[in-house]
Design brief:
Number of helices: 6
Distance between the termini: 43 Å
Strand content: 15-25%
Helix content: 25-40%
Number of strands: 18
Order of helices and strands: HEEEHEEEEEEEEEEEEEEEHHHH
Structural class: alpha+beta
Radius of gyration: 26 Å
């Protein structure tokens, strides 16, 4: 029982990875995102609006400064999708590389199309111009490259299907990829007029100038008035349950420690539970099955609970590691009992000789 309590405490403990929602307003009409910060709009991009933008041409202009020193991969802008972000539109940063893409191929293992350009820690204006035929990227007014037969798409299905998609700045929807940089301006607009419910709408979808210099609201200067909110304690914008994750930071000390902890943490459970069941005369096969099922159920309960916690993330990898650790505990019990049996047999032999 003590082993189970320790595992539950470790798995459900709210760590301090995310503290509050801290921003710094700057005198030059800009805002700096601190670690773990997130800003977001209410859902407003309906499927109809998203389809119009995707069928025509839209542009994203973002003026930013990368942090110094430049860290590893983090989300700058995200428009999440309903399919576990497999079609989300994401602008993010990997070291000194700015990346725009659809989907979750962060480590580029699937070689999905993406737009990239190198940046330094100075202030830059990036414009993405995406149409049916191609997508172009401009940096500080200079045309960098055209990506033929590739178009950025705004997701037509949001996580909250009835409400539409929202825009998230400075982080991912689950607050696992915070960006510690500075934003000066952000605009998204369409080339052609937009129509919804029979009415023509302006082409500018959002326009943030970050000139408030105080408070926890960034006002949208377009006629849509899709303001950004920066609450002290953000709500859970989206749950991720048993995510099959590919770490965009690749191998790091933190991820390696997490793997070791999830694997080794369940070894004592497998060992102790197997020993307990055998001590009460449960058959070997029944003891094995009960131990594996119990370890799996405890791990699944922890991962489900973590999906409701901002501070934690629910991972399929962790579930597999936990079950594997319990299996190793069962093997160690079997090895220990065999060695103990051989030792007792040897001792009995020596006693018989005397």
């Amino acid at each position: 029982m003590l082993v189970i309590l320790i595992i539950l405490y470790t798995g459900l403990n709210r760590n301090d990875r995310i503290k509050g929602n801290a921003f710094s307003w700057n005198q030059n009409d800009s805002i700096t995102f601190e670690k773990g910060a997130i800003a977001y709009t209410e859902p407003f991009i309906t499927p109809t609006l998203a389809e119009q933008l995707n069928d025509n041409e839209f542009q994203i202009e973002i003026e930013l400064e990368l942090p110094e020193p430049i860290p590893k991969g983090q989300h700058i802008l995200t428009i999440p999708s309903a399919d576990n972000n497999k079609t989300a539109l994401t602008l993010w940063q990997w070291k000194n590389t700015f990346i725009a893409m659809n989907g979750d191929d962060y480590d580029h293992s699937r070689r999905l199309p993406r737009i990239t350009t190198s940046l330094d820690s100075n202030r830059h204006t990036i414009k993405l111009k995406s149409s049916k035929g191609n997508t172009e990227i401009f940096v500080d007014g200079k045309h960098i490259r055209s990506f033929e037969k590739f178009k950025l798409n705004i997701p037509t299905q949001s996580p909250a299907k009835d409400e539409g998609s929202r825009i998230i700045l400075g982080n991912s929807m689950t607050r696992e990829n915070s960006w510690q940089g500075t934003l000066h301006r952000l605009t998204i607009y369409a080339t052609d007029p937009l129509e919804e419910n029979g009415a023509t709408k302006p082409t500018t979808l959002i326009e943030y100038q970050f000139d408030e210099q105080e408070g926890r609201t960034v006002y949208d200067h377009s006629s849509f008035e899709n303001h950004l909110y920066l609450p002290t304690t953000p709500p859970i914008l989206g749950r991720s349950f048993l995510v099959s994750e590919l770490d965009i930071t690749r191998i790091s000390y933190e991820s390696a420690f997490d793997v070791i902890l999830n694997f080794c943490g369940f070894v004592p459970l497998g060992l102790v539970m197997m020993a307990f069941l055998r001590s009460i005369k449960k058959p070997l096969l029944i003891s094995f099955l009960l131990t594996i099922v119990s370890a799996f159920a405890i791990s699944l309960f922890i991962e489900y609970s973590q999906s409701w916690m901002i501070e934690r993330s629910s991972s399929l990898r962790d579930l597999i590691l936990n079950a594997s650790g319990a299996f190793l505990g069962i093997l160690l019990y079997s090895l220990f009992t065999k060695l103990l049996g051989l030792f007792n047999k040897h001792v009995d032999g020596l006693n018989n000789q005397t």
